Amino acid sequence: MPQNTRFVSDPPEQTLGRLTQRVTDEIGEAIVTGNLAQGELLPVEADRVARYGASRSVLREAIKVLNAKGLVTAKPRRGTTVTKQSSWNVFDPDVLRWTLARNFSLELLTQFTEIRIAIEPHASALACDAASEEDIARIGQGFERMVEADRGPDDPLAADISFHLAILDASHNIFLARLKALVETALHFSIRYTGSIARDESEKLGIHEQVYRAIEARDARAARHAALKLLTDALDLMNQGAPPASENGAERPRKAPAGATTTG
Question: Could you tell me which residues belong to the region Disordered (predicted)?
Fold first, then answer.
């Protein structure tokens, strides 16, 4: 994936400034990939100025951002230290993006899909009651983009993502809406990964249409069921595409939850 990829729902870069964003990305990626170890002191400010080609004010702003994400802690006269992974805000889209872009982890992607299983079927059910006609039209437009992308003209990745984000919006739940950037980030990697595995694309489109039609019909039970199937199928694909467990005990992705309907 290209370095410093930004996504549709990311805050505009000018929020931080391009140079601040670049420095934040570089230090953040170095931390989550282990190039800057947990507990390690960052170089003194003068050395960082020389290394990143940025002013002191830019570096200080980048450190403030990383501190807010839980990756570093800065103390007067003691310097800036990389925190333990347990302190990182793993729900932050940048932290997830840095991790997956530089140190792809199928296990991490699998765990995030498990979180989506807990979120998106419920969002689909909520949308059946809360969605306006305009919301449902946007979900339909997302599905039509997927159909067009399957034929060639549209971007399959962007089309799929627009469908899922439209459902989160249609739930009209402010907490679910706040997860859009995180869901989008993970979807970029998830769809690219599962898309590299042979599957019946017409079946995938069919399940997306089931979700859309159920929301359109205001059938919460059917919407929840179809959304669950969509995600458990994705989880099964990750299992199919996973390499065997390594000699050092690396885990394969988990299987879909017991009782979930999966047909790949």
Answer: 239-264
CA distances in angstroms from 146 to 1, 7, 113, listed in the order given:
22, 18, 20
Return d(Cα 130, Cα 118) in angstroms, integer.
19
Distance of CA 96 to the CA centre of its chain: 7
Domain annotation covers residue 155: yes
Residue 3 falls inside a structural domain? no
| CATH code assigned at 129 | 1.20.120.530
Exposed, middle or buried by CB within 10 Å (0-12, 13-18, 19+), for 7? middle
258 assigned to some structural domain: no
pLDDT tens by residue, 36-64: 999 999 888 777 778 888 888 999 999 99
Q: How many CB atoms lie within 10 A of CB 86?
A: 8
pTM: 0.73
Strands (E), the chain: 72-75, 79-82
Number of domains, the chain: 2
Do residues 61 and 72 make contact, with C-beta atoms less than 8 angstroms apart? no
Q: How many CB atoms lie within 10 A of CB 215?
A: 30
